[in-house]
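Hi both,

Apologies for the delay on this - the queue was longer than expected. I finally got the pyridoxal-5'-phosphate-bound model through. Below you'll find the protein sequence and the ligand SMILES exactly as submitted, and right after that the structure tokens for the full complex including the ligand.
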Amino acid sequence: MSRQPLQTPADDELQRYATLRQQDPELFSVIKRERQRRQDSLDMIASANIVSPSVLEAMGSSVTDNVVEGYPGQRYFSGCEEMDRLENLAKRRARQLFGAAHANVQPYSCSQANQAVYLCNLKSGDRILGMDLKHGGHLTHGAKGTMAARHHVSYSYSVDHHSGRIDYDQLLARAKEVRPGLLIAGASAYPRIIDFKRFREIADEVGALLLCDMAHVAGLIAAGLHPSPVPHAHFVTTSTQKTLRGPRGGMILLGEETAEAFAQRIDRALFPGTQGAAHMHTIAAKAVALGEALQPDFVTYQHAVLNNARILAEDLMQYGFQLITGGTENHLMVLDLSRQRITGVEAENRLASVNIMVNKNLIPYDQHSPLVCSGIRIGTAAMTSRGYSQEDMHAIATMIDKMLSDTPTAQTIRSVRQEVAALCLRHRAWYPRVRDSHTATASSANLMEVL
Ligand SMILES: *Cc1c(COP(=O)(O)O)cnc(C)c1O
């Protein structure tokens, strides 16, 4: 989209939410303050992103009123023809984008998508093997307190102590020891390329099915900048909101190999197995986001995300920060702050005090609890969508150094806060800046026919 003049959030709210403002001033004022907070801060949470206006419009369209149960052509209510068209459009785009043979676009989130894979393939008491939460894995891969851990016997694998990376020989040994029914690849805080092909070889060697959860790197995979799990995994799940830059939601994809045997089973495991009626407005927004991801400038965007992450990582290492695995190959990095002698929670709070938002994160073999942590995780997907580039990454690395390398003085905090404020003024916090409005419009044209 062309660069519009910077409006104040208040101006923007008046246009976009005029009715809400009038009808529910209490709720409106919360949204307004939150948007102001976002405008005034730098969002470096690795799972964050900023959707396009088209995604927002689809999400907020009248489709929200549609009650739709079941799948296209097999609904439980009448009057679903257009919603069949809508869902089929999203499915087609998902298959095209990821080279999949089957797509289910109904998961409310990636957590639900994972649930469906478990329900489809595992019985109570079966073993699952996923990446340890401390080592970058996700809660839904069998962490204590989750449904997966309750119903299955959950084991985890670690990263190598020295390299911080997955050691595939160690993983094979662990898999042979555990003999899981389902092996899970995928992470929320792992800064390196994941070798899905090798994961499959290991799954085959121990007779396990392979689930690849690509939630964090789906956008990079869509752009061809990270190897795809689709040819290797029995099941692929993802969030649609992270690097993929869509609405909050999930998807399940099957490759050629498993589509025939599993398509119906996985669809039933999701609905009615784990979910109720489809959220059609979110599926509409997924369709828009998938359409955008099929455009060439989405690849440009993902290149910029990677470039920004690499530059930020290099600068931070120059400043003496220790990065898990010694760098990054994707959109995120994990800092081990033991050298700076501060905890993750302290670092998170210090950066938040100057309006730089990151999250405390466990590091491999962390001695602290998840509420304290020894590290932080930093990502560049949202910052890149907002329009920040290379020079800004240099500036941000310097600010992070000032805030974390020593206890900052009141003067330092004041001056960094001012620098952040100046950076924030440069780009609005809610329209992606790297895309061209023409492609957004073109990719939404099909959808407009049904909305
Ligand atoms: C974020 C994430 C999820 C959960 O996604 P939601 O859409 O928030 O449910 C699952 N798996 C991985 C690897 C993730 O990073």
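Main takeaway for now: Residues 1-5, 433-451 have pLDDT under 50 and may be disordered.

I'll put the files on the shared drive as well.

H.
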